[in-house]
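To: structure desk
From: M.T.
Subject: fold request, one chain
Message: Could you run this one when you get a chance? Sequence is below, nothing fancy, just the single chain.
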Amino acid sequence: MAVVHHNRLDDSGIRMSEATAGDFFALLKPRVMSLVVFTAFVGLAATPGAVNPLIAIIAILAIAVGAGASGALNMWYDADIDALMTRTSSRPVPAGRVQPGEALAFGLVLSFLSVMTLGVLVNWLAAALLAFTIFFYAVIYTMWLKRATPQNIVIGGAAGAFPPMIGWAAVTGAVSLESVILFLIIFLWTPPHFWALALFKSDDYGRAGIPMMPNVAGHASTRRQIFAYALLVAPVGVLPWFLGYTSTAYGIAAAVLGAGFVWYAWKVLTMPADDAKMRPAKALFAYSLLYLFGIFAAYLADSLVARWIVLAGT
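Reply: Done. C-alpha cells follow.
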C-alpha cells in the first residue's frame, strides 16, 4: 500500500509542497520520455537533405518536454487507479508527495511551453502534431479509452507512435509516407508489447478496474491477438527496405528482429494455461523493448550512413 505524505502548513495556514525536484522529474515518466526522444530523433535524422543542428536540438527538447507533459497529465488523472496497482502505487501523486493540482498545473504549463516553442522556433505543423499527441494521450487515451474499452491500448497507442512523424515534420515541414511507416511500426508494436505486460499483471489491472484485454477477453484470446499482431509487426518493420527507403543491411536486420518477435509471440501463444509465472509473456515484454530499439537504431544507422555517402560524394 502506498504511503501518503501529508504536506505541512506554514504559519499562515497555507499548504506547503514537500515535493522534491526528483518527484516532479518522475512525473515526466523519464523512461517513456527517453523512448519518445529516441524515435523522434530517428524520424528527424532520416529526413532527406541537410538538418540544421540548432533546429534539431530545439525540436528534440520541445518533443521531450511535450512527452513529459503528457506523462504528468496522465499521472494527475490516473492517481486513483495508480494507488491500487503495485506497479504504480509509489508514483508521486498516489504516494502523496505531489498534490494533484501541482501535477495538473505542471503538465499544462509544460504542454503550452513545448508546443509554443516548437511552433515559434521550428514550424507550426510539427507543433500541431505535438499538441495533438499530448491531447490524444491525456484526453482521448487517459481520460476516455483507458477505462472504457479493452481496445484502449490499440487506439491509444497512436499517441506513442507520433514522435518520429513529429521529428520528420520539424525538419521538412511536411509528413511523408516514410514517416507514416515509422508511425505504423510503433502503432502495431504497442498492443503486443502492453498485452504481454497485462498478462502477468492482470491482477493489478483487475484491482484498478481497467479493462485490459486479459481481464475482459481472457488470457487465451489475448495470446492469440498478441501473435496476430506479431505477424503484422514483422513485415511492416521490413517495409522501409521493400519501398527503397533503406539499404539491404537494414532489411536484413529488420527481418531478423521481426522473426524474433514472432518467435517470442509464438511462445506466448503456446504457453500452458496453468503457467503461473508466465515466463514467455515476461520474455516477450522484454524482447519487444529490444525489438523497437533495434529497429529504430538500425534505421538511424542506415540513414546516417546514407547521408555520409552523399556528403562524401559531393
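Reply (cont.): The mean pLDDT is 92. Let me know if you need anything else for the meeting.
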